[in-house]
Amino acid sequence: MIVIVDYGLGNIGNVARAVERLGYDVAISHEASTINKAQAVILPGVGHFKDAMLAIHRLKLHEILRNVKDKPIVGICLGMQLMYEHSDEGNVDGLGLVPGNITLINTIFPVPHLGWNNLISNNDILNKDVYFVHSYQAPMTQHVVAYASYGTNIPAIIQYNNCIGIQFHPEKSGDYGLKILQQALQGGFINDSNMASN
User: Fold this and answer.
1) Residue 159's closest CA among 108, 129, 193, 198?
2) Which of 13, 59, 114, 144 falls between 20 and 30 A from 193, CA-CA?
C-alpha cells in the first residue's frame, strides 16, 4: 500500500490515479497508524510553502514524517521542497529531512518555471522531458540525481537517505513520469555525486 499524505494542499486526485495505474493500492491519510503501515509514503504539494507547513504542524505530521525511517518518502513538487530545512517562501522552516534551503529561482527567464523541460543526468535513462510548475528551487548539492537547465541549474530529482524529491509533476509527465514515480516508490535512484558540479 502507498499512502499519499493529506494535509489539504496537493494534487492528490491525480497523484492517486497515477499510483493506481502503477498497480498499487492507495490510501489517502494524515493518520500515523496508516502512514506507518505504508510500503512508501508520498508527500504531494501545490501552493505556498508557509501555508503547507502550517497545515503540517496543525496535523502533527512533522512528527510523524520525521519518524519514517524504513521506507521511501517521495516528495512531489512543493512536497519535495517541504523536506528541506528552510524556505525563503514565507521565511519558514521545513521538515528538515534533507539538508539545505529553498530559494527563489534566480534566472533571466520568466518565473515560474512552467512547462516541459529536459532532465539532465549522468544516467541516460533519465534524460527526458518532464512537466514543471514552480517558482522556488532546491540547492544544487551532491544529493541531486537529475536537474533541468533554465538559465540556472534546477534540481529535478534528489535523493538523501530514504527521502526522494521530484520537483516536476510525474503524474503530468506521461508514461515516462510514471516510470520515474515507480522507481522512486521502489527506493529511488543511484545518486551520482558529480551532478552538483555540472
Assistant:
1) 193
2) 114
Let me know if 46 is exposed, middle or buried by CB neighbors in 10 A (0-12, 13-18, 19+). Answer: middle
- Specify the pLDDT at position 7: 95
Q: Which three cell numbers stand for residue 1?
A: 500500500
Residues annotated as catalytic (active site), given as ranges: 77, 169, 171
State the pTM of this model.
0.94
Domains plus CATH for the chain?
2-186 (3.40.50.880)
Residue 5's Cβ-side half-sphere holds a number of Cα atoms within 13 Å equal to: 32
pLDDT greater than 60 at residue 192: no
CA distance 184 to 182: 5
Look at residues 159, 133, 141 and name the one whose alpha carbon lies nearest to residue 197: 141
As a whole number of Å, the end-to-end CA separation of the chain is 37
Q: Which residue blocks in the chain are alpha helix, DSSP H?
A: 12-21, 32-36, 49-58, 61-66, 78-82, 174-185
**What pLDDT was estimated at residue 194?**
45
